[in-house]
Design goal:
By secondary structure, the protein is of the alpha/beta class. It has 2 domains: 72 residues; 134 residues, Rossmann fold (3-Layer(aba) Sandwich). Helices cover 35% and strands 13% of the residues. The strands form 2 sheets. It has a 5-stranded parallel sheet. Strands 1-2 form a two-stranded antiparallel sheet. It is elongated and about 75 Å long. 25% of the residues are buried.
């Protein structure tokens, strides 16, 4: 879906209908929303837009209206774990006993290696596998990999020690997707806009203590499916 199609959906949502002539308009000066003339067909081919049998006007399929309304309701506040597009629909539904995905946002510095291991150990004990973008060997755009990793995760752990800008950027992405975030830090303070997140303070000289605290934090992450996490919380 490109910008033209989004503009068309916006127009139809607001104005309810459009004529076939307007949809197929090729004159750039007369187009309502098309930036190019080759993007209208996917709308009709996929039945996102339906033709009224009486008037011949084109309208959004009622199901599309309903979906847009539901998403709009979810996005009237910061997204939560039930945000419809927080997870990729193309991802396989996890089977019982499968490892849950998590994402670790942490500074890429040698002094954090033991902390990273402590987080991974806690995740493994709680049934999670933590992905760290800096450890990926896959070639490609690093920010696309960050986005993919966060979107596919059930939990995000972020070490805010030292106020690393990359970590805070990744927290913002996670927040925009409605992810449950566990903050960890060697410091006692945090910016006001993330103080509401689950928080684990730790001492760098005690990675075992961090692991134990994180096991409890991971266990408190809500389940996406009944067979994940503590079923007594349902």
């Amino acid at each position: 879906m490109d910008r033209d199609m989004v503009n068309c959906l916006h127009y139809l949502y607001q104005w309810q209908q459009i004529s076939r002539a307007q949809l197929d308009e090729q004159d750039p000066k007369k187009r309502l929303f098309w930036c190019s003339g080759d993007t209208n067909r996917p709308l009709t081919n996929r039945e996102i837009v339906r033709e009224d049998g009486t008037t011949g006007e084109l309208r959004l399929d009622p199901g599309v209206y309903d979906l847009i309304d539901m998403i709009e309701d979810q996005l009237r506040s910061m997204p939560k774990p039930d945000y419809a597009f927080g997870y990729p629909f193309s991802a396989a539904i996890p089977s019982q006993g499968s490892v849950r995905p998590a994402f670790l946002a942490i500074p890429y510095r040698p002094e954090f290696e033991l902390i990273k291991k402590a987080v991974n150990k806690a995740g493994k004990a709680a049934g999670y596998k933590c992905e760290v973008t800096g450890d990926l060997a896959t070639p490609g755009n690093i920010m696309d990999q960050v986005w993919t990793g966060i979107r596919g995760s059930d939990a995000v752990v972020a070490d805010i020690t030292g106020g690393n800008v990359n970590v805070f950027y990744e927290i913002g992405l996670a927040q925009a997707l409605g992810k449950e975030i566990i903050l960890i830090s060697q410091e006692q303070d945090a910016p006001f806009d993330i103080r509401a997140f689950r928080r684990v303070d730790y001492n760098a000289s005690d990675p075992r203590g961090l692991t134990k605290k994180l096991e409890e934090a991971f266990a408190a992450i809500s389940a996406r499916y009944p067979h994940e996490g503590d079923e007594t919380r349902f």
